[in-house]
C-alpha cells in the first residue's frame, strides 16, 4: 500500500496535534485537520490536505465529514477531558479502525483505555521515558 492511501485525521491543533498534522503532511500523507477554533483551522490550511472547523463532540459534525472513512484518527484534545472522552467514544462507535488519543493525566488515560482507544499517549510521561532510555544508552556507549 502506498503511504498516500492511508487517510489520517487530527482532531485538536494545539502543540501536540499540530506537530503531528504538520509531520504527516510533510511526509506526504493525506491528513484532515480539525479544530473548533477558526484561527487554528486557518493556520493549518497550508499544513494539511483539508482543514475544517467544527466541534468534534458533535456526532452530526463527525458524520458530516465522513469520519468513519478515515483509517487513523488522533484525538489531540488535552484540557477538556470531557470533550476528549466523548470524541474518542464517538469515533470508536462510528467504527473508525484506529483511534489514538492524548491523555492529560492518569485518570484521563484510564478513561481513554476503558472506552476503547487503540493507543493512549501521555506525551510528557512517554517522552520522559524515552529521554531516560537515551541517557542510559549514551552512558553505556561511554564505557
Ligand atoms: P497542546 O497540544 O498545545 O498541549 P492541550 O493539551 O493544552 O494542547 P488544548 O489546548 O485544550 O489541549 O486543545 C488542543 C486543541 O484542541 C485546541 O486547539 C482546541 O481548540 C482544540 N479543541 C478542544 N476541544 C475541541 C472540540 N470539542 N472540537 C474540536 N477541537 C477542539
UniProtKB/TrEMBL annotation:
GO terms, biological process: potassium ion transport
Residues spanning the signal sequence: none
Protein name stated in the entry: TrkA family potassium uptake protein
Species annotation: Psychrobacillus lasiicapitis
Molecular-function GO term, any one: monoatomic cation transmembrane transporter activity
Transmembrane segments: none
Domain RCK N-terminal: from-to ranges: 5-121
The organism's place on the tree of life at top rank: Bacteria
Amino acid at each position: 500500500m502506498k503511504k498516500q492511501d492511508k487517510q489520517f485525521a487530527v482532531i485538536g491543533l494545539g502543540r501536540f496535534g499540530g506537530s503531528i498534522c504538520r509531520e504527516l503532511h510533510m511526509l506526504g500523507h493525506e491528513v484532515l485537520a480539525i479544530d473548533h477554533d477558526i484561527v487554528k483551522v486557518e493556520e493549518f490550511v497550508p499544513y494539511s490536505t483539508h482543514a475544517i472547523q467544527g466541534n468534534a463532540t458533535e456526532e452530526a459534525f463527525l458524520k458530516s465529514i465522513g469520519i468513519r472513512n478515515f483509517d487513523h484518527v488522533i484525538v489531540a484534545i488535552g484540557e477538556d477531558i470531557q470533550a476528549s472522552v466523548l470524541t474518542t467514544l464517538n469515533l470508536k462507535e462510528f467504527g473508525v479502525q484506529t483511534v489514538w488519543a492524548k491523555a492529560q493525566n492518569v485518570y484521563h488515560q484510564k478513561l481513554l483505555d476503558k472506552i476503547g482507544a487503540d493507543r493512549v499517549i501521555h506525551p510528557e510521561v512517554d517522552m520522559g521515558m524515552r529521554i531516560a532510555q537515551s541517557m542510559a544508552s549514551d552512558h553505556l556507549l561511554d564505557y
